[in-house]
Amino acid sequence: MSTRPTGPKAWHHPLARPLAALILLLAVAAVSVPGFLHLEIKDGHLYGNLVDILHRAAPLMLAALGMTLVIATRGIDVSVGAVVAIAGTVACALVSTYGVAVAFAAALGAALLCGLWNGLLVSALGLQPIIATLILMVAGRGLAQLITDGQILTVYEPASFFWLGGGWLLGLPVSLFVVATVAGLTALLMRRTALGLFIQTVGINPVAARLAGVHTAAIVFFVYVYCSLGAGLAGLMVASNIKSADANNAGLLLELDAILAVTLGGGQLSGGKFSLLGSLIGALIIQTLTSTIYALGVPPQVTMVVKAVVVFAVCISQSSAWSSWRKA
Amino acid sequence: MSQRLRALTGAPAFTTWVSVALMALLFIAGAASYTGFASLQVVLNLLIDNAFLLVIAVGMSFVILSGGIDLSVGSVLALTTMVAAWLLQVAHWPAEAVIPLVLLGGALFGALQGLVIHVFRLQPFIVTLAGMFLARGLCFLISVDSITIDAPLFVALSQTQIPLFGGAFLSPGAVIALAVLAAGVWAAQATAFGRTVYALGGNETSALMMGLPVGRTKVAVYALSGGCASLAGLLFAFYMLSGYGQHGQGVELDAIAAVVIGGTVLTGGYGYVAGALSGVLVLGLIQTLIAFDGTLSSWWTKIVIGALLFVFCAVQRLLSLKKAHP
């Protein structure tokens, strides 16, 4: 971090800007939409826009966690949306006959296979990450449609299948606990083991990392597998929430939102710098934006324009050319 | 491996020839399996149905040769159909004014992306991704619904058939696409701009040190891609006679796939613009084969395209590895 003379010290904390953006966005929503921040307890469940934002952002947060690690190694995974579709489809196809446990295991197994494929292409074959994952992005939805025969699979029972994406625990949506658990475990893995350091090393300089004895191929392989597993879990959550599998539209453009969330949270696309908490905040910013636009009654497609402007602004403010202009 | 085989696989045009061979193979397989497949009109229909994709793939070839990528092309296509439809049907502008205006608009959109990429040294992937969101969102700001076009010039162009020998015909759109391809091949092989694009994709630092106009060329490449996407949008509007924000979903992926299958290497600096034609025709043939078969479902197209993409990328990668460590 460069030391700039202006502004209080807290402003230079990596999380300060994303957090400020989220608070600003919530403030705008609270002013323009009456009762936006209102929370109430009905039947022992906490309801309100804030809970709703957290609940709806859950799949994106899971995808963003994996994407954070991938981007930290200078990579990118554009197949996240396709993996969401595959996992959801596998689960919905199996759950009525074989039960929830088998369906969940099979869905995560399918996601694991996707991750192994991506990881192999990037780390063993040495393909550019965007191209390697593009292959699964193109073919993945086709594979998912192959399972459903092009139909939307609707699940009616067992009811336990709907618990993950629509259930409640201690008055809060189950999805929040899932995200918290995954984020907590990931953070533990990054902080308590050397893995986080290795990932950062690979992102800063892969050649130097390899020469220093870091097993770069294994690290890169791991992050793609991890990212796909996160996407698979997100796919289960989406399928359980909408009680069906839509191979064409489940998780559509989720990879782009996940990349955006990572960028908003302060992760740099050139690798080496990442923040799990920042990415989670980034995901919340995106969902708050979407929810606010819905609540304002503006056509939801307008979100795309706002997102585009936000991406431009964030990327330009992160660029070195911009900071050298500001200093000059 | 024998010397001759090594020379063959090491030739710059090797993967392009592989795609031409694949195209021939797919056509022979189709002709052998289905009656009515081996006709001139089936081949010409490939061009008619994929004219817009060919135009986009030509623009994308330049971007990829320069070492970049343009994800915004599908959205720019949609935005062009939308703006053209709105100007024609709601603002009642004459078609002769609308066509140059939207072409200019597309080129300007591309140029702005190129400018952001160059000035702020950002990754083309993320900038054109934002451009993709922006153009798609702007479509819906104009209208959420589809707008039907009934301007006489557009209707006339959509119905004209240019007769060739033997009762076969081409559409004006296909002729325009072939002209764009010819111009693209010429620009890449015979102009200073084209050679600078190759140099830029080969090694940007070297190109800069050679005194080549790196910044100007970069902006021009994205402007060219935006202009091509916009022309493709017009061809699409001739074909569909409507403007709609959902038009051209995923076209950027098809275009990238066509360029890669046509033998252009995604890291830049290596390949041929003419490969775009064989790439687009291979994609078109796969779709036609699946349509002729009738029992295979449309999603097989995606799976086969993904598999082809994998094979071509892997082959390119292995060939480049072999070159580095012979």
3D architecture notes:
Chain A is mostly helical and 328 residues long. Chain A has a single domain, classed as ABC transporter involved in vitamin B12 uptake, BtuC, CATH 1.10.3470. Chain A has a two-stranded antiparallel sheet. A two-stranded antiparallel sheet of chain A has the order 3-6. Chain A has a two-stranded antiparallel ribbon with strand order 4-5. In chain A, helix 2 packs parallel to helix 7, helix 2 crosses helix 12 and helix 4 packs antiparallel against helix 5. Chain B is mainly alpha-helical. In chain B, 74% of the residues lie in helices and 2% in strands. Chain B has 15 helices and four strands. Chain B has a two-stranded antiparallel ribbon with strand order 1-4. A two-stranded antiparallel ribbon of chain B has the order 2-3. In chain B, a hairpin with a 5-residue loop joins strand 2 and strand 3. In chain B, helix 6 packs antiparallel against helix 12 and helix 9 crosses helix 10. Chain B is globular. The model of chain B has no long low-confidence stretch (mean pLDDT 86). The interface between A and B is large, with 47 and 46 residues.
Q: What is the topological layout?
A:
The complex is a heterodimer of chains A (328) and B (326).
Chain A: H1 16-32, E1 39-42, E2 45-48, H2 49-72, H3 80-98, H4 100-124, H5 129-148, E3 153-154, H6 163-166, E4 168-169, E5 172-173, H7 174-192, H8 195-204, H9 206-211, H10 216-242, E6 244-245, H11 254-264, H12 276-295, H13 302-318, H14 320-327
Antiparallel strand pairs in A: 1-2, 3-6, 4-5
Helix pairs in contact in A: 1-12, 2-7, 2-10, 2-11, 2-12, 3-4, 3-5, 3-10, 4-5, 4-10, 8-10, 11-12
Chain B: H1 3-10, H2 14-33, H3 40-49, H4 51-65, H5 73-89, H6 95-119, H7 124-142, E1 147-148, H8 152-159, E2 162-163, E3 169-170, H9 172-190, H10 192-202, H11 204-209, H12 214-240, E4 242-243, H13 251-261, H14 275-293, H15 299-324
